[in-house]
């Protein structure tokens, strides 16, 4: 997942427009965020038991399953019913074997849970690895949530996730809402440190909350990842993802057209040779269960 800016109501939000939009834009987002998928599954070894937090439509879970192999096991968890429904459609109901077209033979069994990782009762020391691609920044109580995840991880097991750095370093992510804000007076402003994509923008704060949750060997390093999408995909991105995309269905036709045109124009600085190019400024966060 990865794109809510409001405080509270995460479950309701992701089970409405946010979750539906993410599913409709799944192919685009998977291509755009492929480098992050490859990064987080690096920690998955053969036969690993893996938990993918905020798994969305399941792409990262399936990638982990390919690395874990047939002796492994992968569980994807998300609060969004539209995403879990899409993810579950990609696996064979008889044994959790993925049937996704991109799924190679010899992968681990996969299971998807419609549940909140912040409150779900996992078995103690159940997983070797906990991963997340932009899916852990939405906890109301991150210390409690990461404590639960740590207890679900075996001794010496690893945590790896990627999260966005400061919004000032990621102008692409907020370009549409900044441009369209004068036309959308009801658009909620982002709240610093609230659950949402930039909740872990402050490295020291993230380090403290992980330490307070019992994780050790904490390493947080900046990564700058080039991302691209096709020119013709930009409108899909703007109209399905983010605060502007969630607001559009509520607007009249004329206002909607004006908002879309205004938002699309805000991406002119990112256009180069019929492609939209930007740099994703993120943190790669690693930790171990003691």
Automatic annotation (TrEMBL):
Q: Mind listing the GO molecular function terms for this protein? A: S-adenosylmethionine-dependent methyltransferase activity
- Which InterPro entries does the UniProt entry name for this protein? Methyltransf_11, SAM-dependent_MTases_sf
Q: Which residues form a coiled coil?
A: none
Keyword Transferase in annotation: yes
Q: Which domain of life is it from?
A: Bacteria
Which GO biological process categories is it annotated with?
methylation
Q: What are the entry keywords? A: Methyltransferase, Transferase
Pfam families according to UniProt: Methyltransf_11 (PF08241)
Residues forming the Methyltransferase type domain are 51-160
Protein name according to UniProt: Methyltransferase type 11
